[in-house]
Design goal:
single chain; globular; 10 helices; 13 strands; 3-stranded mixed sheet; 19% strand; alpha/beta; 33% helix
Length: 295
Amino acid sequence: IVQNMRSMRMYRGLDGIGVYSAGLNHNTIGTAATYGTIQTIYRNLHRLPEVDVVLVDEVQNVAHKNSEAKMYNALMAHFPNARKIGVSATPYRLDGLSLGYLFDDTVFSYNLLDGIRNGYLAELRGIRVKTNLDLTGVSRSMGDFNTSQLTAIVDTRARNSLVVESYKKYAEGRQAVCFACDIQHCQHLKEIFDERGVSCEILVSDSDITDDRKGVVARFKAGEFMVLINVNMFTTGADHNDVGAILWARPTMSQTLYVQGTGRATRLKSKAYVERFGQQALVIDFVDNTTKLQL
């Protein structure tokens, strides 16, 4: 919501814009538009005026069943005459189900390559690093690898050292986002980055490991360290223009995760970055993802 508000401020200002979210401690209804979380909106549907459009962001995450599906169904039913629009940069679901139960047709499609060609996104250069991994015995769950089985194979000192050395060889001097399998994998990677003299921090949901997530992100954006190691945290909605490299230390079968994670490097870069590296970022792939998944 906060990031969308910033974009709205940039394009038209915030006059007539409201925010309805318990998590942000706001309950204002805008005359032009109202941003909200589905949980708060659902509980307060009776307070909302008629609207012309219901727009759902990150629509690929909308559940087909359970309480969240109930809330979205109620939202749509409450505004029968409104136009319903779903938006997603990654319109793929891990469970293989369709987005069609809420939305009828895809009316506009604009992918990363379109954005790069038209000058709205930074160019990406892919680098594949061979690891000799054999993942044939790793089971699948919800369209991706089983995390515990995957970690047992990839979280080794030799492979983690390869990740760090590849960063130093190809991307040293660039800020990078490194995707790891789990918290322990993050910690093991950090040990080797520290040994090699590369400043880094960990961003995970466990407050014992990352006790100030906002602080970690703020320090990264301020350029206070070079590599942000995370477990699926710096994906949807994460915004730092000068991410210069993506390190895929974790294999994935998820098209959604791969596109979202790689997309963190596509923001147009600052003048200082462009003077050093050009309008380009690196995607360093340690599991041949770039030969199996498409952007």
